[in-house]
Amino acid sequence: MVHYIRFLQPPRVTRSKKDGTHALLSTLLTITTDLGDAFYPGDSCVHCAIFNGTTMRSLGMAHWMPGMRVLKIEAKVPLDFLRLRARFLFTCTESFEIDALQIERLPNIISAWTEEFSHLDDLDSDTTVRRFRVPDGRVLEICEENGDSMARHIWDGGVVLAAWLMDWTESGQHRDIPFTVLELGTGCGTVGLAFGIRSDCRLLLTDVDDDALTYARHNARRSRDTFNSVWKCLALDWSEPDRLKLDRPLDFIIASECIYNPDSIPGLVRTMSSLVRQSNGLKEGSPPPQIIVSTKVRHSSEAAFFDLMKESNYDEKKHIRVPIHDQYRESNGQDLEVVHIYIFEKQIESVSSREE
Q: What is the signed CA dihedral for 349, 351, 353, 356, rounded to 10 degrees?
């Protein structure tokens, strides 16, 4: 199970009247699951640092213990670090390494960064930044909301699918012509942007939530120096899938953590079918887009998605089970949680069947 450092009280910096060389950093944080429904049950040290673009300075650490729900951190910050653009880091990695976006190296606890600031008044209180280093050394930054909206948070299934894509795209999913990729329920844009950082793409990031699209748009803009993919954010309501008109065929449709709500599953499958139909009609004889779906099973009702996909003539080409590394569960002999990744393709209707 992946856990996340989250801010309950955003970091604040106040100047000391008695100390002319340091300011005081204070924050309240927690370590919780992606949905915030459980706290990290083990021991961990939370290290605090400030980074000014070239130098990382440790500010100290605090100890998270079993049974805790809140951790208070206070630290002195050298004023010379506050004279340049800087950001704070809260991590359970003593080396302060950026979290690796690779299946075998995903950390148990995802670090939390603040946005960069050049003045204490600019310290953003509404967001947390997740920074992931991909295999070639580039860094993918995903900004998410500090509030309770799940649509503007990253989820386990998205993080694992993004990490899996790093290896999958390295294994032959490159070509001279950019892929056209559409993400359904993009949220903060984690998976779509991960696809875009590993392969040059035309990305269509879609969601019904306008605020989620604002975060996806913001994250795509902050990635402009990281990848060569072009992108567009579009509103898409699964109850009205035909309102989105494609102007080119799709290579991939991706959807992460989109089947947990049984009420939305019929609309999701209809939307996929509408997109496949449009895509096939734009280029006669081209293969249908591959549909990549990831989920960490949360309800038995998710099985309805697979029944509807079968009824709608989708073939399940692959099913990859990705156990989530969890040091606490492993040390206590507990089963690891699993993210499931599926690849579907629409069955192509034969000429003889159409003639009948």
A: 150
b/e per residue, 127-160, with b = 16+ CB within 10 A?
A: bbbbbbbbeeeeebbbbbbbeeebbbbbbbbbbb
- 174-208 as b/e, with b when 16 or more CB fall inside 10 Å? eeeebbbbbbbbbbbbbbbbbbbbbbbbbbbbbbb
User: Residue for token digits 């844009």?
Assistant: 189
| pLDDT tens digits along 173-190 | 556 778 999 999 999 999
Helices (H), the chain: 156-170, 190-198, 210-222, 265-282, 303-311, 327-331, 351-355
What DSSP state is assigned to residue 313? T
Contact assessment for residue 269 and residue 246, using Cβ atoms and an 8 Å cutoff = no
How far apart, in whole angstroms, are the C-alpha atoms of residue 119 and residue 83?
A: 8
- Which CB contacts under 8 angstroms, 24+ apart, belong to 242-245? 242/274, 244/206, 244/274, 244/275, 245/278
> What is the C-alpha separation between 296 and 294, in angstroms, rounded?
7
Q: What is the DSSP letter of 333?
A: T
Q: How far apart are CA 343 and CA 289, in angstroms?
A: 10
For CA atoms 25, 31, 33, 39, the dihedral sign is negative
Please, what is the Cα angle at 113 between 112 and 114, to 5 degrees?
130
Predicted confidence (pLDDT) per residue in 185-224, tens digit: 999 999 999 999 988 899 999 999 999 999 999 999 988 8
Using alpha carbons, select from 23, 77, 22 the residue that is nearest to residue 49.
77
* Best CA proximity match to 193, nearest among 207, 209, 181: 181
